[in-house]
Design goal:
Blueprint (H helix, E strand, L loop, with lengths): L10 H7 L6 E5 L7 E8 L4 E6 L5 E14 L2 E5 L4 E4 L4 E18 L5 E2 L6 H4 L7 E2 L49
Length: about 180
C-alpha cells in the first residue's frame, strides 16, 4: 500500500500555541519510513546558537516568523519571514534571533541512527561494555563530568543533546546544532 499525502502540522497554529520565550523544537517530522527530517525551531528574542558545523548533511532553513541573522566566515546573512537559506554540509555558521525572536523550519535528509563505536579494544574500553554498537539515547539525568584523567572518557553522553538526542561532533558543545538547546 502506498502512503497517502496528508497535513502533518499547521505551523501558524504551533507558533500561536507556544510562548515567545519557548526555545527549541516545537515540532518534528516523526513519520515512520520517512527519508527526510524536519523541525520547527523557535529561538526567543536575542537567543543565539553558537558557531557550529554540520559535516554530514545539507540543511534548508526557512524563516517562518521573526528575524535574525546567520554569521558565516564569508559574512552575515539577514533573515526575515519567507527567507530560505541553504546551509551546505561542511559550512560553519552561527545563528542569532532578532528582537522579536526567530522561528524557522529546517529540512534535511534523514540522519542514520546514531551509534557510538568504541575505539579498538584496550583494557579501558573492554570494561565499558560488551556491545560493539549501541544506539545513543538522551540521558535521563546529567552525566558526571569527565575530569580528563586516565585517557578518553568512557562514553560521550556529555555530547548528546538533552532536548533532541543529537550527538555533537564538537568535543565541548555549547549549543545543539539541530535544535539550538544549550548543553549543561
Amino acid at each position: 500500500m502506498n502512503p497517502a499525502p496528508r497535513v502533518l502540522a499547521v505551523l501558524d497554529d504551533l507558533l500561536r500555541a507556544a510562548t515567545h520565550e519557548e526555545r527549541g523544537a516545537l515540532w518534528q517530522l516523526a513519520e515512520q519510513g520517512r527519508e527526510l527530517d524536519a523541525n520547527l525551531v523557535r529561538l526567543p528574542p536575542g537567543a543565539e546558537v553558537g558557531e557550529h558545523q554540520e559535516d554530514v548533511l545539507d540543511v534548508l532553513l526557512v524563516v517562518v516568523e521573526g528575524s535574525g541573522r546567520i554569521t558565516t566566515p564569508d559574512g552575515v546573512l539577514d533573515l526575515a519571514p519567507t527567507t530560505a537559506v541553504w546551509l551546505p554540509r561542511g559550512s560553519r555558521r552561527a545563528l542569532a534571533a532578532g528582537p522579536d525572536g526567530l522561528a524557522h523550519l529546517t529540512v534535511h535528509r534523514r540522519r542514520p541512527g546514531l551509534t557510538i563505536k568504541p575505539p579498538a579494544a584496550s583494557p579501558a574500553t573492554s570494561r565499558v561494555t560488551s556491545q560493539v554498537e549501541r544506539p545513543a539515547v538522551p540521558p535521563v539525568a546529567s552525566p558526571m563530568p569527565y575530569d580528563g584523567g586516565g585517557g578518553e572518557a568512557p562514553c560521550m553522553l556529555d555530547r548528546v543533546c538533552p532536548a533532541c538526542g543529537r550527538l555533537s561532533h564538537d568535543p565541548e558543545p555549547v549549543f545543539c546544532s539541530r535544535c539550538g538547546e544549550r548543553f549543561a
